[in-house]
Amino acid sequence: MALLGPIIKTALNLHETITATSDHVVAQRKVLEYLLKTAKKTSFGLYYDFNNILEDDDMEHAFAEAIPFYDYHKMDEQWWSRMKEGKPDITWPGVPKFLARSSGTTGKKSKTIPVTDEMIAAIKTAGTRQVSALTNFDLPTDVFESEVLALGSSTDLSEEDGFTIGEISGISASNIPEFLDSFYRPGKEISSIDDWDERVQKIAEEAKNWDIGMLSGIPSWLEMMLKKVMDYHKVDSIHDIWPNLSVYTSGGVAFEPYRSSFEKLFSKPVQIVDTYLASEGFIACQQRPESSSMQLITDGGIYFEFVPFQPEYVEQDGSISNNAPVLTMAEVQPEVDYALIISTVSGAWRYLIGDTIKFTDVEKAEIKITGRTKFFLNVVGSQLSVLKMETAITELQEKFNTSIKEFTVSVKKIDGEFQHVWYLGTETETSEMELAEALDLSLQEANKNYKVARSKALKGVQVHKVQPETFAQWNDHNKKKGGQVKMEKVMDEEKFKAWEEFVSSL
Fold it and tell me: What is the side-by-side strand order in the sheet with 281-285?
């Protein structure tokens, strides 16, 4: 019987009650004021006259009017490049110690994003709040004194031009307080192994020595790790190794497409809790069992703005037009797709993070990620978000009693007509034609814009089945193998051509 579990759970429950945000609009105003006051003497703050914005009675809208939108490339070229040369006080006071290398799925070159001490502190605080919120779920008390296995990027960070560089999960793990070391697995020694396969092998070898109660990581890579552990110990369930495993905090991609295959690895119930940690900061996490939505962390060093994600405001490359309307937390509406704009304690300002979200509960500031600004299929007006695609894939799995954990799609012109071409990672015996017809019908029923497109410019849908491991092989082929790498759900013409050539070579 757990002795410490009830005590820890009570302490976490008290922490969750004390730190809960009751008014997200007020919290956001305080964050914006803090950001502006702290950075007003930086090069960026002087250039855009933060003092003047602070004196305005309508600070939020004055801020939006004074500063244009920035994406990574614009921010880096105009401002962060000077900081990376060692110059202080460019977009945030001082010079940061860390740069987060984005493991993003778009772009040919890795991005490096500043991570300040304030941001590391904010991520720690958000992580503590996430763990505290687990007291809202019906979990056995044993789990609160069990260990946590976080499968992220290597903590063996590199040194370059005076900066320590790594992916955000690796930076966060390398900054875990000493008093938590005894709860954290796989531990700093194994986490520092850069080679993914070698790291997973070491986890498998050590697994029986640990009492894991919680897991964290991107579903595709975590599933591969769990299977490796089970194969190594020749068991049928991960609970044969870790009987107290009760919680999995997912993140990075939607969990639903993986649910059926994950459940085959478990012999006991496991609570799935969603999180939203990006290279730019800890953005949201699920707070209650009644909803699978995540609550924006509105008091954690990030100020949020929202642009309605409509064709007239979005450029072909996924950027936002300068005339697009911008809304604050006080102005958003539920069930509307918004491009997310953030300003942070790491010196990102009115920064297009590339994700789209919708509010499911405005008062509680609860959201779902609906896709990427670059990942909407809208070449022929179909306006398909990743969320709608994933919902259709889930319906496909249920209809044909199969598993489809990964997919990618693009638009191709075949015989002079546009078609959506899908690749599904599945071992189902259902024919590609049946899958295409069911997928097409599901999308038409769920999305009126897609239905209109199918009656006009979008003339067909193709489905190609590939082995599920093809997607991991593709990432490996592109030297993107690791715990934080996500598969592109939508590819542009150039990348899709390379993908099809790769598939045909297998």
Answer: 184-185, 147-150, 212-217, 247-251, 271-278, 281-285, 294-296, 366-372, 351-361, 338-344, 302-308
In angstroms and rounded to an integer, the radius of gyration of the C-alpha atoms of the chain is 23
Burial, 240: exposed, middle or buried (Cβ in 10 Å; 0-12, 13-18, 19+)? Answer: middle
Residue 487 banded pLDDT, cuts 50, 70, 90: confident
Asked if 230 contacts 222 with a C-beta cutoff of 8 angstroms, the reply is no
Contact by Cβ (8 Å): 463, 424: yes
Residue 206's nearest CA partner among 198, 214, 195 is 198
- Going from the C-alpha of 281 to that of each of 295, 301, 371, the distances in angstroms are 14, 9, 18
Strand pairing partners for 282? 277
Cβ neighbors of 313 (< 8 A, separation 6 or more) are 307, 320, 321, 323, 324, 325, 339
Positions of E strands within 362-416: 366-372, 407-414
- Alpha-carbon span 307 to 323, nearest angstrom: 10
Q: Domains along the chain? A: 1-374 (3.40.50), 386-505 (3.30.300)
Residue 6 is predicted with a pLDDT of: 47
DSSP per-residue codes, 313-355: GB-TTSPBPTT---B-TTT--BT--EEEEEEETTS--SEEEEE
What pLDDT does 233 receive?
97
Angle in degrees, CA 433, 436, 439, rounded to 5: 150
Regarding beta strands 112-115 and 98-101, do their DSSP bridges make them parallel or antiparallel, or are they unpaired? antiparallel
The DSSP code sequence of 450-494 is: HHHHHHTTEEEEEEEEE-TTHHHHHHHHTT--STT----SB--HH
Entry pTM = 0.77
